[in-house]
Specification:
Elements lengths: L3 E3 L19 E6 L5 E3 L2 E3 L4 E6 L1 E3 L9 E3 L2 E4 L5 E3 L2 E3 L10 E5 L5 E2 L2 E3 L9 E2 L3 H4 L7 E2 L5 H11 L2 H7 L46 E4 L7 E7 L4 E10 L5 E4 L4 E7 L7 E12 L2 E12 L2
Parallel strand pairs: 1-4, 2-5, 3-9, 4-10, 5-11, 9-13, 11-14, 16-22
Antiparallel strand pairs: 6-8, 7-8, 12-15, 17-20, 18-19, 18-21, 21-22
Helix pairs in contact: 2-3
Length: 301
């Protein structure tokens, strides 16, 4: 969310590992993604594509868990992703077939990806055409694959990825004048010491999420005896129920449905007392259930 992704056209930059196969001139490449949301970003002046959604062909993972064995590759196809309300400006200047704002390909049936609310002042350009009409809704229903051979062959040509050539069925760039800058000598990726610290608060400020379960935050403002608070989930997550436990009292279950819920609970009559309130969120992500927990510390006014 809220990224400004622009001018990614320089082929002569440090590179390492599979990230080096990212197609030159692409703002953001999301490979093998499942149930991700890309929203409210700006993609500008990326000369191949502003944003692409492609499978991830892994040549190193064995056994092939969660993917599909395709020859020597374990292919992770993307599904269930939402590309929403992004702004695109001046993408696709290389002028090759399919270059433009959004490119999309997958090779297997699965939960639908969706594209909605994206905007380009000059007219949104997508491959395949009319993506927002083909896949407008994030409801998880299963759709056939979208092989999109012209786009897949162009991505393989741009990235010079042997793995992408393998799943595209090609061996070289499309013969009809594909024009992409090639990685030059550049600079080697600098060595990264093992002492670099991790992010201090990677879960700070995020919505309720099983990946960030267990975090403890202090509510800045003092609270009245009764507290009413809203809870929000990400796209395609749905509440099953919410339990709230104030200090050492028993937990109280609240009914909740949809992506948003509001719970109301009693703190205490004593003033200036710090109280730990534990929230347990039971939710569904697609067809499976997950649980996330977090604690907020309130103090009475």
């Amino acid at each position: 969310m809220h990224n400004n992704v622009h001018d990614n056209n320089n082929p002569n930059v440090p590179a390492a590992g599979s990230a080096a196969a990212g197609p030159v001139g692409t703002g953001m490449s999301v490979s093998g993604a499942r149930n991700d949301t890309i929203m409210d970003n700006t993609f500008a002046n990326n000369d191949a594509w502003g944003f692409i959604l492609v499978p991830y062909p892994d040549s190193t993972t064995q056994p092939c868990t969660g993917g599909t064995q395709t020859g020597a590759l374990c292919v992770y196809d993307e599904s269930g992703d939402a590309v929403l309300n992004n702004t695109f400006v001046h993408n696709g200047s290389f002028g090759n077939t399919t270059n433009g704002d959004i490119g999309f390909v997958n090779t297997e049936p699965g939960p639908t990806n969706c594209f909605a609310g994206n905007h380009d002042p000059a007219g949104l350009t997508t491959s395949p055409a009319a993506l927002e009409t083909l896949y407008p809704t994030c409801d998880g229903h299963v759709v056939p694959p979208q092989p999109n051979p012209p786009f897949l062959s162009q991505v393989a040509c741009d990235s010079q990825s042997i793995q992408l050539f393998a799943i595209s069925g090609g061996q070289s760039c499309p013969p009809v004048g594909a024009n992409y800058p090639r990685h030059g000598a550049g600079q080697p990726m600098p060595a990264v010491p093992n002492t670099l610290p991790t992010m201090p608060h990677p879960c700070g400020g995020v919505t309720a999420d099983p990946w960030c379960s267990g975090q403890v935050t202090t509510v800045a403002r003092c609270a009245a005896r009764f507290v009413s608070t809203g809870l929000n989930l990400a796209v395609r997550e749905r509440f099953v129920s919410v339990s709230v436990r104030v200090a050492h009292r028993r937990s109280i279950a609240h009914k909740a449905r949809g992506r948003r819920a509001r719970v109301r609970f009693f703190l205490a009559s004593a003033r200036h007392r710090r109280l730990r309130v534990r929230f347990v969120l039971h939710l569904k992500v697609g067809k499976h259930r997950e649980t996330t927990r977090f604690t907020r510390i309130y103090h009475r006014c």
